[in-house]
Amino acid sequence: MKKIIALFLLFLMVFSLAACTKSNTPSDDNDIVDENPQDTVEEDDDEIVEPTPSTDEVEVTLYFANKEYVETGDESLEKLIPEKRTVEYGDISLEERIVKELMKGPNSDKLSTVIPSNVKLLGVEVADGTAFVNFAEEGLYGGSMQEDFTIAQIVNSLVELDSVERVQFLIDGQKAETLMGHIEISEPFEK
């Protein structure tokens, strides 16, 4: 008798568990399948999802090398010449957009960027008035004039902003002795 009760309870438990499990396939043709599952999601009319982040436009002053000075070395000429440009930012910080615009080059054919074309910008962050310009070490080489102009272009352009008082260069996220082997960059630069 105990065996029959034990078998009955075991059968009852197996049947209960089988009835509670959910099947991944419809059990018969009467099951309702929702072909538009997004229709069942409750929509929030107040929430607007933008496919792209909002961007702002601002006019900035970018400093580029005077092409005539670079070609002749004539000390009577201006070394850096400002160029006004309207830039869009929002997906990245304004400070990072400025450095990328400097790397892209000037609009005027009388100016040039001396920032090496193979340099990779890792990012620009600002904290307490200091803009930290972070470059990858790979591809970061050049002569002393190229290093001097690269630093001057970036520093002069960034300190034009109210948010930046000085610029600290980093290589792979760390302070370094020099940018390209000639000018010390261990301390921040001011205009």
Main traits of this protein?
alpha+beta; 4 helices; 3-stranded mixed β-sheet; 191 residues; Alpha-Beta Plaits; 3-stranded antiparallel β-sheet
Strand order of the largest sheet: 2-1-3
Can you give the helix content as a percent range?
25-40%
Our measurement of the CA-to-CA distance between the termini, rounded to an integer number of angstroms, reads: 98 Å
**Poorly predicted ranges:** none
For the record, the CATH architecture of the domain at 56-171 stands as 2-Layer Sandwich
Question: What's the total count of β strands?
Answer: 6
Q: Approximately what portion of the residues adopt beta-strand conformation?
A: 15-25%
The topology string of helices and strands comes to HEHEHEEEHE
- Main structural class: alpha+beta
Mean pLDDT: 84
- The coarse overall form would be elongated
The oligomeric state of the chains shown is: single chain
The number of helical elements comes to 4
Enter the CATH topology name of the domain at 56-171: Alpha-Beta Plaits
CATH class of the domain at 56-171: Alpha Beta
Rounded to an integer, what's the Rg over CA atoms? 32 Å
Largest sheet: 3 strands, antiparallel
Signal peptide: 1-18
InterPro entries: GerMN
Protein name: Spore germination protein-like protein
Pfam family, one: Germane
